[in-house]
Write a structure and sequence with these properties.
This protein has one helix and twelve strands. The chain is mainly beta and about 170 residues long.
């Protein structure tokens, strides 16, 4: 909850909280008014960007910050007040900066629940064994030459090449 003190025509923000766009009826402000405000009907005004909404705080000075001013992220959220007596404006405040409306997580109706495993394709010669990705291998180049060769197979070929080189 935001705690705001109205000292005559100046607002002082004494407690803040982060505001995320998309939140509705969750952020509140409580105004405390100096004696200059006694006998006045008080109206709180909130703005962010070009959106301005006015409402009357309850008897404790509290009100919910209107969702319309927190609907879009990236704007500075500000508060102000004015007081009237017999329908005439008597006292107004300057704007108080409540902070940036942060970009909230978008709500998407077509969102899917998380899956237990990532979505990926297992290609030719690959398999998952006990949760580990492994590859099929061969010991020689006969047959499927797209699979990797084992170290033993390579050593056998190199040994034959070494024998042939010695014979030359």
């Amino acid at each position: 909850m935001f705690e705001i003190i109205a000292n005559k025509n100046k607002l002082h923000v004494i407690r803040r909280e982060p505001v995320a766009s998309g939140s509705v009826n969750i952020h509140q402000a409580r105004f405390q008014f100096s004696e200059d405000w006694d006998g006045l009907e008080k109206t709180a005004v909130f703005r962010a960007g070009d959106e301005i909404i006015s409402l009357r705080p309850d008897s404790s000075g509290a009100c919910v910050i209107p969702w319309e001013v927190t609907a879009r992220g990236g704007w500075r959220l500000e508060a102000g007040c004015y007081g009237t007596r017999d329908g005439e404006t008597v006292l107004t405040t300057t704007w108080a900066d409540l902070g940036m409306v942060l970009e909230g997580v978008p709500i998407q109706a077509d969102s899917l629940p998380p899956t237990s495993s990532p979505a990926y394709g297992i290609g030719h010669g690959l398999k998952i064994v006990d949760g580990n990705l492994t590859a099929d291998t061969v010991d020689d180049f006969s047959g499927d030459n797209t699979l990797p060769m084992t170290a033993a197979g390579i050593q056998a070929i190199l040994g034959r090449i070494e024998d042939q080189l010695r014979a030359v």
